[in-house]
Amino acid sequence: MEAVAGGGGGGGGESAGELLLRAAAMVPAEHYALAALAVVSVLAYGFLELHFLGDLLRGFRGGRVELTFHPASEIYHRVASKCRSLHGRYLATPWLASPHLQTLFLGISGRPPSFTYKRQLYTVHDGGTIALDWLLATDSKDSDGILSEDASAPLVVIVPGLTSDSAAAYVKHMAYSMATKGCNTVVSNHRGLGGVSITSDCLYNAGWTEDLREVINYLHHKYPKAPMLCVGTSIGANIVVKYLGEEGENTPVAGAASICSPWDLVVGDRFISRKLVQRFYDKALAFGLKGYAKLHEPVLVRLANWEGIKKSRSIREFDHHATCMVAKYETVDTYYRRCSSASYVGNVSVPLLCVNALDDPLCTREAIPWDECRANKNIVLATTPNGGHLAFFQGLTAGRLWWVGAVSEFLFVLLDSKYMHQQKAQDHILHSSLESSIDKSPYVNVMEDGMIAPVTDDGPCDDITPSHQVNDIKQDNGDFTQQNEHTREVDDKNITEVNAMPSQSPEQSAGQQVEEHYVGKFHEAIAPVKRSINQLTRYQGKSVWLLAYIAFVTSWPLLGSLAFIAFRKKFRNNLLAKWLRR
């Protein structure tokens, strides 16, 4: 009995942990594998932000496209309201039901159409080289194999994203879509991309609009009959919107589209370093930027901190060691604030369609300028619940990008309407690159020819005088020549009148010579002020009285001296007449 009791006591003496292990050992290994798979699936579903179950519960109808616009916007009521794609739903490819999967698939494959561009190398004002890659709608070419100068088909300028060029899948999707519908498309590659070397001391960045401005003006002057459209993607979208805001009414662009713009670079910088998955994107993009820098090492070794570039593990670090040093920004945040397109939305005067996915893993919804877009009658903002970054794949085979169809539809409805933007017939010397340069320096100079130039110690990247401005200046010089000819005619007339007057006494002749001498000095002294008024008045007619007041105040000492000389001569003549009468 005691032995039995002892044995029972030994069995009952096992710890709870031992009993739990014995019970766990009796469970088949397959059950553990299934449980582990379930846990991993739940974690992966949340980590990858999958929405397959949500699409399933909605019957694979997709998410509704939400539009933000001004209630009185003619662009919405007459253009966007006729676009079926903007009033429907977007359903992602089921096996890519995640913003990360879509973005990854776009970078790896993207299934772009197969075609070959025709390349044109364009040299900008500072010696930099830009590759313009053409895809024509027809075989209408001129002698250089590009496009006939009398072409009247719409011309679409596409601006790629960060470290992307014309070979990117999403760029080829957009170019092919527009070309097959009758448009001539040209991809304006960033400096140093598309297999082209950097040939100047300037690099492109998120706010560098000078290259786009010069390319658009060049294309507009070469193909004046072709309505010009512009599509920007990612960083390219930020550049396009910033350019449109800088130019206002003075751009030849008739309509534009912005796809997945980061909008506010400061907010985007905070977002991309916030979560673990975003940090992966940050490191991947930094790796791509370092690859771009490696291609142009001889230039960056001289202009930037090459050792810091090699050690960069994020976009911010790369911008600190490269972008800020080359473009001469004081800090990274200064660069981000000055180059954010959200600050320029209010001045956009061109019909603009903006597309953003709310689950974009790179460009957060927090940066979207909702109120600014709603306040501008020229802007329609379209947001979708899903889509990733520049992806928006559709269909079971993921052969189409939703945003490509939406943008194409919007632009063609715009072309068929009367709401295309028309450039104002006026010079824009003061409204182009000089304006962006003035923003970087608090001091300006008014030169003798009436031009306003910034006083800055910045390098060649900030001292901008686009080539298209040379023609404007030549025209202004022609105006000055006409003015000088008119002045000479008046002077000749005055000389004739003087010669017709009766002869004067030697004292009066000497006094007149002294007066003419001082008058000539006076005209020479105020000539720059007069030229400045004539030049600036052409651009700012409303400010003519203000300019006249400024000219009067600045020349008052000379006017006072002239008045003193005149009154002194008159007083001396009066005394001389009284003495003769005696």
Automatic annotation (TrEMBL):
InterPro entries xref list: AB_hydrolase_1, AB_hydrolase_4_sf, AB_hydrolase_fold
Annotated GO molecular function terms are:
monoacylglycerol lipase activity; short-chain carboxylesterase activity
Q: What is this protein called?
A: AB hydrolase-1 domain-containing protein
Q: Which residues form the signal peptide?
A: none
Sorted alphabetically, which SUPFAM superfamilies does this protein's record hold?
Answer: alpha/beta-Hydrolases
Record's family?
Belongs to the AB hydrolase superfamily. AB hydrolase 4 family.
According to its UniProt entry, this protein's organism is Oryza barthii
Source species, domain of life = Eukaryota
Where is the AB hydrolase-1 domain positioned along the sequence? 154-395
Where exactly are the transmembrane stretches of this chain? Answer: 32-54, 544-567
Keyword tags: Membrane, Transmembrane, Transmembrane helix
